[in-house]
Queue: 2 jobs
Job 1
Amino acid sequence: MKLGIGCDHGGFELKEELKRRLCAEGYEVTDQGVYDQNEVDYPDIAKITADGIRNGEYEKAILVCGTGIGMSIAANKISGIRAALCCDCFSARMAREHNDANVIALGARTTGVELAWEILRSYLNAEFLGGKHTVRVNKIMQLEKGEV
Ligand code: RB5
């Protein structure tokens, strides 16, 4: 599976560790930065990482900042993106099964490495359930287009 990953300075160390583990498991990971701990603005990285989904480079992406909040807010402003900030494994699974989230946001200052990895695995191992959830996700996309 191809994945995108991006972070700001607050999420750099966690991003590096998650990327290392994903690659070890055979995922093809496109790292959209940042590549060091110099301060950046998280919306810039959210945009670059989301663009990889929009142009078909990968289907899903991971965004990491200090709390995951800024990244998730920014990503959700981008057309076609459904980003879920996840702090527990159940929410991560639901984000796929019910919400068809194509981005998971994680907080490096709120979530330890091992928990973040378990959350990410819960997200990646789950599949969208479709059915009534498709109707609801389509309504989200209509909201985005201003159709309702
Ligand atoms: C950066 O200091 C911090 O604001 C950012 O990583 C993130 O937590 C924003 O939501």
Job 2
Amino acid sequence: MEAVGDIAVIGLAVMGQNLILNMNDHGFTVVAYNRTVSKVDDFLANEAKGTRVIGAHSLQEMAALLKKPRRVMLMVKAGKPVDEFIEQLLGILEPGDIIIDGGNSLFEDTIRRTKYVESKGLLYIGTGVSGGEEGARRGPSIMPGGSPAAWPHVKPIFQAIAAKVTDPQTGAEEPCCDWVGEGGAGHYVKMTHNGIEYGDMQLICEAYHIMKDGLGMTPDEMHEVFKEWNEGELKSYLIEITRDILAKKDDDGQPLVDKILDTAGQKGTGKWTVISSQELGIPITLIAEAVYSRCVSAMKDQRVEASKVFPPSNSRFAGDRKRWIDDIRKALYASKIISYAQGYMLMRAAAEHYGWNLNYGGIALMWRGGCIIRSVFLGEIKKAFDKNPNLTNLLLDPFFKKAIKSCTRSWRKVVSMAVRKGIPVPALSTALAFFDGFRSARLPANLLQAQRDYFGAHTYERVDAPRGQFFHTNWTGHGGRVASGTYTV
Ligand code: 6PG
């Protein structure tokens, strides 16, 4: 058996198949394998017919067909199947060979797997792949991390098949794929991407809800609005698909969107982002609200019951519709800036915690094309980090500062009217609340510290004493003299 394969892909579900065909288009010889081997023959006889793709009917055959160091990419369900395949592959591959996991794996699993595979003398890559079916086929965004020594061997393939964008700074064509960092860095960045995806989707849904119930607009009318929005600063894949979804008719000619049950599903990456943010103490409030909004939507039966107990009042917004639409656009834009600022805060904290050297401008460029959150907006983020690689918060960049300032009036107007009319806007309003908190030099946490000290002797710092000096007051006169520790988790 001649070792002609450049890479093997295990898992012939839609993402695996499309990545293989994409690699084939770029001149690579791919070996395809699937646990249910009949799928291999089926793939070769149909989708891969007439290509250079080679089918393997066992892992041993697959390994024998690969050039060294062997590159084996898993496109299987995250979780146990990845560990099972790693175990099998370790028995077949040789030191120096590379195992790549291209699924939506939890970054902590990737940290563990990288160490484990490296301890056996092999190399490991855990990579985010975004862009869905179409992206995998025509050019996804790829976010690899793991063993740095593996990257040069994988780089030519990944960068060839990735989406390409023009760097706003240099004007050069760049692939939406670059080395993210060691261990779980690639999967962490992909997880954050998905969290931001949740936030973007929720913001769009809230804008839709206001237009539908507050302005009484039809899907066709909203289609026109999203079409217009897709020509300005909100231009993005998610706005574009929303435009198209709103125009889609069911078989009876009625808008399909109105026939879809309002309960959202989720596969867990948004939840993981929020869990990680809690662990790192970073307020990604918008993503958290987006995750919880999906949870509220899933409580359909209870919501129907509650709507009878608390029936909605008139939710219509008075005033000029055109002006409202413009206000909603600005509220959405400002909230989106907050969401990305929060996402970047999270990545910065994770980088520090896990010892990753993340390139924030590079991440914006990777997300600029190919992935689900791709947008012109990410070009502005790239520019911000190019100008100042040490930028601590996006909101402090001159471009975003100006953008937020120009939207604030509309943002407050939309959120307050939605609240008055009883239209839920958790993402738009939490973004505004975060903004107001972030720009407050003094918050009411002084009182909170007093409360903690009152009931638990948790101590507090004083405005008239150096930081790090802790005080306790005997608030009631009958408390003890002993204060509790001052640690903060
Ligand atoms: C992508 C998507 C992809 C997938 C999500 C959907 O980047 O291509 O994010 O990874 O569609 O996992 O997530 P939910 O099912 O949780 O909405």
